[in-house]
Design goal:
- There is one protein chain.
- The protein has one domain (5-332).
- It is 69% helix and 3% strand.
- It is built from 13 helices and four strands.
- Belongs to the TerC family.
Length: 363
Amino acid sequence: MDVPLYAWLAVFGIIAVMLAVDLFAHRKAHVIGVREAAIWSVIWVLIGISFGVVIWVTAGAEFGQQYYAGYLIEKSLAVDNVFVWAIIFAAFAVPRQYQHRVLFLGVLGALVLRGIFIAAGAVLIENFSWILYVFAAFLIFTGYRMIRTRNEHAHPEKSQVLRLFRRFIPMTETFHGQRLLVRKNGILLATPLLAVLVLVEVTDVVFAVDSIPAIFAVTSEPFIVFTANAFAILGLRAMYFLLADLMHRFVYLKIGLSLVLIWVGVKMLLLDVFYIPTTVSLSVIALIIAVSVMLSLRATRGQGRREFEAAPVGSFREATPEELAQMEPVWRRSARTPEQKAQNAEQKAEQKAEQKKVNETLR
């Protein structure tokens, strides 16, 4: 598949415009309801499907099917990502009106990181064809492990990343709107939202390790791999707000996702022995996901939406109007008297002592 430079530039332009529209539509912090999330989910899905039509018409049915298979894999595996996001937001008690901004920044980072991973994967496959068998074995093992641990969910409190963040970065216990950083008495502090953003980015890296080899099982074209990833990821924010309060109903979805990973792993292993047509692969993936969703909804009939709950990782709260009024400019220090500098030094020493107690408790 020979993709001209203008096609790549056009894709990047479309993504930039879509992100700008999304940012403008959510420029003010507000709680995103089910109706709004459903509308945006439909918009993102239609855009993803429409792009597949463009590939089908311009490059042929085979590449069009490869795109849809990759898109379906990424979209399906993203549901597990949504579940982890729900745990993180609940553990940090992040107010709903601030969650979209974190996810927006998280998606930006995910696009960049996945672009790097995809480029690296394409280079490895081109120069070391045997790496496909390594990917295949990894996918089969991951699918098996996912089945065994389907009822286990990692909690942020156990995250080594969070421990390192708390150890080296001073953090306030209050949310200051959508700000990631605040300055108090001349000291730059991270808000809980910055810690949440870091965990969201790390989560995406972990999931990319599974999903990118999976999509390489259905296509080796970097353009298709990247666009399928990008258009699936762009709709993740809307999907989160639509499904976060329904995650308890998808009881069999994780089994379905594990079977998808095993299927694409087996397909990749058989690449030089028996060719499985893309049409068959796409049909099997769609059937597995559809059956797991239908069985899940049937098993949980009568259960409504409910807010996700998780053990807290701290006593986080929103800043009071008085605390908000006392905020200093983050990127500009105001002139301070020697007395203020001495006071700030004392406060830094107290914060270090408190942080040391927290670290000792974590150990």
